Structure formats: C-alpha cells, structure tokens
Amino acid sequence: MSTADTSVQLLRNATVLVDVGDVTFLVDPMFSAPGENPPVENTPNERRNPLVPVPDVDTDHDAVVVTHRHPDHWDEAAAAELDDDVPLFCQPEEADAFTDEGFTDVRPVEDETAFEGVTVHRTPGRHGHGELAEQMGPVSGFVFEGEQTAYVAGDTVWYEPVAETLDRFDPELVVLNGGEAQFVEGDPITMGVEDVAAVRDATDAAVVVVHMEAINHCLLTREELRAQTEDVRVPEDGERVQL
C-alpha cells in the first residue's frame, strides 16, 4: 500500500510500520487504550499500561508481523481490530495461538519466506540475560529484504547473533527495541545505552530506537538515550524515519 522507499514509522512502543518498497508491514500491534492494562508485575512502579495513546495516523498495511506474543507486542485490542484474513507472520511456536484467535492466514516463519517481492527472514533474539532470558520465552527479530533491507531486532539485548545478523544481511535500516526494560531484580531485558552503542558501532545502517516511554517497566527515556548515544534516531510516537 505504500509507495515510499524503505522507512519505519513508530506508532507506540514496539508497534511500527515498516515500508519496504511498495509493501507495508505492521509489526507488533498493541492497540489498547492508555491505562487499559495492568502494570507489568515485579517492576519498579505500578503505572497502568499503556502509558500513552496511539497517535492518530494511517495504519494501512499489507501484512502483520508479530515478533512474540508478550502483551506489549500483541494485545486483545489488536486481535479484535485486525482483519481475520490478514497475512500474519510469526514464530512457529506461536502460530496455533493466532489460529485459535480466528486468524485464517497465519504464516509461521521457520527460517525465511517470501511476500509480494520481499524476502522475510526470522532472526534470533535473547530477551534478557542468563536464566531470566530463558524464562521470558522465545523471541524473534525479522529482516525484510527487498531493494533495500530493514532489520527489526525485536525484544533482544546485544549478543553475538545480533552481530551475526548485521554481518549477514548488511541492512540499510535497523530498528531496535530500547527502553532498558527491567524487573525489580535482574539485568535489563531490552536494549539500553550500551547495547544501542554496540549496534551503532557494528553497522553503517540508519539505527532507529523504539520501545520507549510507553510501558511501565521501560525506564530509559528518549532524552537520556539521545544524550548518551551519537548518530541514532529516537523517534517520537507517530514519527516516520525514511532512508
């Protein structure tokens, strides 16, 4: 539906629209109204989620991609609002859950698949460190390869498979989930300043950081990240970054 070149538009949190040529992917839709959901448990504050509304922007899309089914990446509001027959790409472990919700064109990605001229690759992620990462369950990133290539890393920290993905695909656009989300105990489960800087040092791509200031356990602010990281885009909700 898009006529733009490769770009990403942040809606809120990890919900983004990725344009690759003429194809638009809606990634990790979370459409709940502010305060509709409880706070993430065992975190440093009790603010109800989401913290902010979805901006009033055009969300037309050709397909949906869900990196994992944590409620800040896929919620009941998205399940109710999206068309049942939308092409929906996901982790193989979670395909049955989408089918059970009534979606009729669920496309689990084991390694790679094709969609309207774009090759969609599923890539590894590690949602935290050590035992906590295991408890958080499987997560994925996705690479969208057309005339240009976009890498949406998903909920992961910096670790070797992220570096390997950057080396393998050499993307022009990288979208990272920042916010340095964390619980009362343990290390962060999404990228913080050092993780983002490591990605910045590992690629010549345009680096865009989302997953900020929308969920109660995301403690790193946009202002803090901008102040401590060079040559990285940290968009506001509704903002588009285009190559």
Amount of beta strand: 15-25%
What's the N-to-C terminus distance? 18 Å
| Multimeric status of the protein | single chain
Radius of gyration over all CA atoms, rounded? 16 Å
InterPro entries: Metallo-B-lactamas, RibonucZ/Hydroxyglut_hydro, UPF0173_UPF0282_UlaG_hydrolase
Region (Disordered): 32-51
Domain Metallo-beta-lactamase: 11-211
GO molecular function, one term: hydrolase activity
3D architecture notes:
By secondary structure, the protein is an alpha/beta fold. The chain is built from six helices and 13 strands. The strands form two sheets. The protein has a seven-stranded mixed beta sheet. A hairpin with a 2-residue loop joins strand 7 and strand 8 (118-124). The radius of gyration is 16 Å and the shape is globular. The two termini are 18 Å apart. The mean pLDDT is 96.
Top keywords for this entry?
19% helix, 13 strands, single chain, seven-stranded mixed sheet, globular, 243 residues, 6 helices, alpha/beta, six-stranded mixed sheet
Outline the secondary-structure elements.
Blueprint: E1 7-12, E2 15-20, E3 23-27, E4 63-65, H1 76-81, E5 88-90, H2 95-100, E6 106-108, E7 112-115, E8 118-124, H3 130-135, E9 140-145, E10 149-152, H4 160-169, E11 173-177, H5 193-202, E12 206-210, H6 222-228, E13 240-242
Parallel strand pairs: 3-4, 4-5, 5-6, 10-11, 11-12
Antiparallel strand pairs: 1-2, 1-13, 2-3, 7-8, 8-9, 9-10
